[in-house]
Amino acid sequence: MEFNVTTLEGKDAGKVSLSDAIFGLDPRQDILARMVRWQLAKKQQGTHKAKGRSEVARTGSKMYKQKGTGRARHHSARAPQFRGGGKAHGPVVRSHEHDLPKKVRALALRHALSAKLKAEELIIIDQVVAAEAKTKVVAGTLATLGLTNALIIGGSELDNNFKLAAQNIPNIDVLPVQGINVYDILRRGKLVLSKAAVEALEERFK
């Protein structure tokens, strides 16, 4: 399919051909949900930890004698029911990561790209460059395109001026094409691809 290309200043820059195998799919919510869940689980540190009864610093001796007190039978003050005791079934350091087939991950990225095109939230620009690393200038340029919440994907090498200027703008993310991912695509309103990014994606899924 043919898609219009613009410049950062909003001027027409011709057309580009998009592959139906990447941008023309009917998006499936279940695949996208599986991918986002996989990404977020992989991102979790898993460093949460609570001390069990064998780890708390309390005496392990019997609290009081077994019989004759009229009270319940107890042994250690480390038991979970006592203040200062160990946590029963508390969180432990672990990995939250789970498996997701590589083919499903690749399919999810294509569905995310197709979802943006179908929702008319895809913009293709000729190149992602800035003459100087000035946040005010780049923010004004993006505002002319109506980009207040967007993910911008450049080529394999990002223009350093644009990257430095854009990193201070709220709700604007800039990534090289090899860093493109489903979670970042879906969490931002608009998806902005450079022509170099489109070519790299089509080469990747060839």
TrEMBL record:
GO cellular component: ribonucleoprotein complex; ribosome
Biological-process GO terms, alphabetical: translation
Keyword terms, alphabetized: Ribonucleoprotein, Ribosomal protein, RNA-binding, rRNA-binding
Start and end residues of each stretch annotated as Disordered: 43-97
Gene Ontology MF: a single term: rRNA binding
Listed Basic residues bias regions: 64-77
Entries under Pfam families matching the protein: Ribosomal_L4
Domain of life according to the entry: Bacteria
Binding partners and assembly: Part of the 50S ribosomal subunit.
Function: Forms part of the polypeptide exit tunnel.
Stated family: Belongs to the universal ribosomal protein uL4 family.
NCBIfam families with a match to the protein in the record: rplD_bact (TIGR03953)
PANTHER family linked to this entry: 50S RIBOSOMAL PROTEIN L4 (PTHR10746), LARGE RIBOSOMAL SUBUNIT PROTEIN UL4M (PTHR10746:SF6)
Protein name: Large ribosomal subunit protein uL4
Taxonomic lineage: Bacteria, Pseudomonadati, Pseudomonadota, Alphaproteobacteria, Hyphomicrobiales
